[in-house]
Structures are given as C-alpha cells and as structure tokens.
Predict the 3D structure of the following.
Amino acid sequence: MRKQSPFDTDSVRQLANLLAETDLTEIEVQKGDLRVRVVRNLTLPVAAIAPAAAITMAAASEATADAASSAAARSDAQRKENTVTSPMVGTAYRRPAPEARPFVEIGSAVKEGERILLIEAMKTFNEIAAPRSGTVSEILVEDGQPVEFGEPLMVIE
C-alpha cells in the first residue's frame, strides 16, 4: 500500500505557477508543522542577452557598430579572463576578522598566490588566492555576502 504524502501536490503546482506568473523567484508557505518552499533558478542564456545588444547596435552606423562590436567582444573576453570566480558555495569575507582591514581594495596590487578573500563553507574558512599578479579593478562582492559556485568575485587586471 502506498503511503500518502503529507502535502498536496496540486498546491505545490499552484505555487510554482504563481512564481511563473509574478516573476518571483521564491515562495514559502507554512501551515502548522508543514512548510513548503518553492524556488526557481533564474539563469539567462547568452542568447537572451544578445538581442538587446543588437537593438542598441542597430542605431549606430554599420562601420561604427562593427568596430564597437569587436572592441566589446575583446573587452568582454579580457574581463572574463581577468575575473576571479568562486570555487564553491559559501559566504565571502573580504577581511580576516570583523575589525581587520580588507585583504584588498580597488587599486590594490596583488601577486599571484596572494590571499584576496575567504569563503566560509561548512564552518571552514577557505583562502581564495589571486590566480595572477595585477591590480584589483573591481570588487563584485560585499563582506559577508553569500556566493554561488562560479559567481564573479573580483576583477584583477
């Protein structure tokens, strides 16, 4: 005999439909001891971003658009190459202790292998080292911010 589920699957479907209709990313409902949380992951494919760029480019002359397009592609490729991403899910910390100074600031010169961040995962602090020498041009996370695997943390040029 099949054991009956403690929650109504139709209600979960209704919550999922409500997410889609309202552009919300998360809904949580609790009734007594039963709690249902429905979350959707929003990741935009590269193809979804390209049409907006194409509309902007159409207004410019064709020669200017070609030059801007190739420069933007080089700039994006270079920025991606210089971006330090999170190797794990956790909480990013820009300083070794709450009262301490941050490891790096925008404009800081770093050497390859130098500690630039900490990511706490499962009560363990993992040192994130600079993958290359250079200057920190952007810091994309706040101190104590949760981060996902592959999320951009900072740019070192």
Q: What stands out?
A: The beta strands are 26-31, 34-39, 83-85, 90-93, 109-110, 115-121, 124-129, 134-139, 145-147, 152-156. The chain is about 30% helix and 30% strand. The radius of gyration is 22 Å.
